[in-house]
Design brief:
By secondary structure, the chain is α+β, with helices and mostly antiparallel strands. It has two domains: 148 residues, Beta Polymerase, domain 2; 120 residues. Helix 9 packs parallel to helix 12.
Length: 288
């Protein structure tokens, strides 16, 4: 754990008992880059709070003043993910609070580990908890972590299949030729995200999101050589060089799937990815 993470963890330990003083709070956890030990000068302090029943606005902010903080934003309940979020400052450092009910967390673990859902939000939640540091009621957090350590085979396959279909690559060459470079780099980003998601499935890694990409890639035993550097180079090189590099990487990922997950058929995805659209400089014969 680096120094930036250590002092953030100390702050989290200081405020956790104040948060946990509310009897509705069942567990408190440090998440994010500080919990993973890689925080930097810009990192906030991400704290997960797990409640017995849905918290009121008053309950969510009750600890801020006693902890010496100042409220910045209080977001309303987000029904799409069943969570509440607020931000507050402590000496200017951003405290990023994420609130879920225990029932919601139990359901999220079951959705991903038992029912093998590939939802980005749910995967990120599981990843955060798996790498989290308990601050209050460690047995509850450790129970979720113990269940999440079993990455099921069905989820592994589901993650690969859900991201298998990279868009036909002729389209990227076409928009590059037209000078539509924002679309070219957007295509690079989309393809990179799909490749990384497939590799996370192959490597049994819950999807943590795309921040700290190099650290996630470093965890992968199965990946194209020098993947992080090659992906970064794509966004520095000339567009045509990037197009060729991304095509090579995509085919390398398909090869790894064939090698390590033969039950998944990549042939249709390959054909679509490598398909070509015929260009026409003149009208086809017999049409006019």
């Amino acid at each position: 754990m680096n120094e930036a993470s250590k002092w953030r963890l100390e702050i989290a330990h200081k405020v956790a008992p104040i948060i946990a003083a509310n009897p509705n709070v069942q567990a408190v956890m440090l998440g994010g880059s500080a919990a993973r030990g890689c925080a930097d000068r810009y990192s906030d302090i991400e704290i997960g709070v797990f409640w017995a029943t849905p918290p009121s606005d008053e309950q969510r902010i009750a600890h801020i003043a006693p902890a010496g903080g100042v409220l910045w934003t209080l977001d309303p309940y987000d029904a799409s993910v069943e969570e509440w979020m607020e931000e507050w400052g402590l000496g200017g450092v951003k405290m990023d609070m994420r609130n879920l009910t225990v029932e919601r967390m139990n359901r999220t673990v079951a959705d991903v580990v038992d029912r093998c859902e590939t939802s980005g939000y749910k995967q990120q939640t599981i990843s955060a908890v798996l790498h989290g540091i308990p601050l209050y009621n460690a047995p509850m957090v450790e129970g979720w972590q113990a269940k999440a350590r079993h990455y099921p085979d069905r989820l592994r396959v589901a993650m690969v299949e859900a991201n298998l279909g990279i868009d036909p690559w002729w389209w990227v060459a076409m928009i590059a030729g037209r000078g539509d470079l924002p679309l070219v780099y957007q295509a690079f980003a989309n393809a990179a995200k799909q490749m990384l998601a497939m590799l996370m499935g192959l490597n049994r890694i819950y999807h943590p999101g795309f921040k700290w990409m190099a650290r996630t890639i470093a965890e992968m035993a199965i990946a194209p050589p020098n993947l992080a550097a090659r992906l970064n180079d794509v966004f520095h090189d000339a567009p045509q060089t990037g197009i060729e590099q991304m095509q090579q990487l995509a085919l390398a990922v398909y090869n790894l799937i064939d090698q390590h997950m033969p039950e998944v058929d990549t042939s249709a995805a390959r054909r679509r990815f490598l398909s070509l659209r015929q260009p026409f400089d003149q009208p086809p014969a017999g049409v006019l």
